[in-house]
Amino acid sequence: MGVERREEACFCLFCFPFDYRRRRRQQHQTVKSNSCFNIPPITSVFILMLLMFSPVFPATSAGKLRQDHHVFRPRKETNKMELVKAHLMRINKPFVKSIQSPDGDTIDCVLNHHQPAFDHPKLKGTKPLDPPERPDGHDEGEISSENHQLWSLSGEECPEGTIPIRRTSEQDILRANSVKKFGRKIVRPVRRDTSSYGHEILKYGINNVEKWQHAVGYVSGNKYYGAKASINVWAPKVTNRYEFSLSQMWLISGSFGHDLNTIEAGWQVSPELYGDNRPRFFTYWTNDAYQTSGCYNLLCSGFVQTNRRVAIGAAISPISVYNGGQFDISLMIWKDPKHGNWWLEFGSGTLVGYWPASLFTHLRDHASMVQFGGEIVNSRAWGSHTSTQMGSGHFSGQGFHKASYVRNMQVVDWGNSLIPLSNFKILADHPNCYDIKGGTNRVWGNYIYYGGPGKNPRCP
User: Fold this and answer.
1) Which terminus of the chain is more exposed, N or C, with fewer CB under 10 A?
2) For the segment 142-181, what is each residue's pLDDT rounded down to a tens digit?
3) What are the catalytic residues?
4) Is residue 458 part of a domain?
């Protein structure tokens, strides 16, 4: 028994128990028994003193540590929170009124000249411009004041001289991979790929692993000064917060390298960006292939908003129902022939604002490609293809009421006229996961059906 006690005492001398009293008793026994490792008593006492006053093992019980650990925050975490607060100060501008949306959003009414756009070095000291002339062929009879956003259902609106901005919360930023990346697509390199059918299309990759997948219709080969379409709105299932699903139109120019310019608008479901699974009206722009410029919505300086009734980033209502009622939003982007800025129209003739021409290099003149359709992120979180849906979550062959569509697709020519698509092509880069088909008729003009469920027996 004496030998067993000595062995236990010898072990406990070096096992660093949390309970201080128990440790002292065991250490005292070790000194009395002269240690099974033949450590001299004076050496044992010296080791005991080191253990007692070591900063690595404070004389505090385990329970006390668990109770108080939240009081201490590592310097890295403290620095991150300081960055978050500083970023919120930059993008959440002073407001004259706030409106609570039924979906939990807070909409701030910000004075026009205080909006984020005018933080941009090229826009400081400027003011919002007056609306330009719409393209020829635009039906002036369509123009109305209707709105299709949840926050406006209360009947409240922002006062004259202000614009509505969805307030960004601390939780919004903390969901992002980093404060620096918040509100931006992280997509590089960007390349122009050729499919087995000879069709060229804008595709994205990260570290040579393709994550962004598309089913789109597109035109290229000419100079384009705008585009218009009606985009079917759904609420596709998004598997995790690091993925998204969107339907949009792109105006693209550049060499598809680091100088790529894009203007984008449509609807998206992005749990990371918004914290929910509602489809939301969004915009995007970049002038350097998504590297350092541009952002979603008004989360950085650039886009100049002029409308006080549309909140970019706010939820859209109503939405389409499978085998039931269908809802779409009309979008038009075109280049003002007088000032060269790219204007955005949402819904039935409602001007939202514009991207100043000074933001761009290639798009300062014209677009060289226009795309319409869907995009998802495939994170392969479980080693297989994502189950994130595109569009309605159903393949194009199911048609109206079931598959997602884009209809009445047109482009704007050099004379500021809306014209039908010429040399229109379609491409689905993973047709077993998400597919597309196109057509033309007298009512819908050029149209596409597209989408899919993602992971399925043919898309493992």
Assistant:
1) N
2) 444 456 899 998 789 999 999 999 999 999 999 988 888 8
3) 264, 375
4) no
